[in-house]
Amino acid sequence: MHNELKTCRVCGLNYNDFHPWGVDGKTASYEICDCCGVTFGNEDSLSHSVIKFRKDWIKNGAKWFNRDVKPEDWSLEKSLHNIPEKYK
Ligand SMILES: [Zn+2]
Q1: CA 44, CA 38: separation in Å to the nearest integer?
Q2: pTM
Q3: Which residues have a beta carbon within 5 Å of ligand 1, which is an ion?
Q4: Residue 2 — pLDDT band, cuts 50, 70, 90?
């Protein structure tokens, strides 16, 4: 099931067992997103900075920060659908 608390606000990556902003959605982990490379708690704190970071990331080719964990069937378009409404 889709869970916004397990989703990167910038790139829409769904994590299986990780909450970028904690289980309450308010406690930033300061970990780095495997996909877009945002630091949870820094550039993804405000919706306008989320949008800017995403725009720059896509402009630079939407490259995975941690390529070792990139799924074979990953698609940018599909991933972007997962982004919570507030941060689109
Ligand atoms: Zn991300």
Answers
A1: 7
A2: 0.94
A3: 8, 10-11, 13, 33, 35-36
A4: low
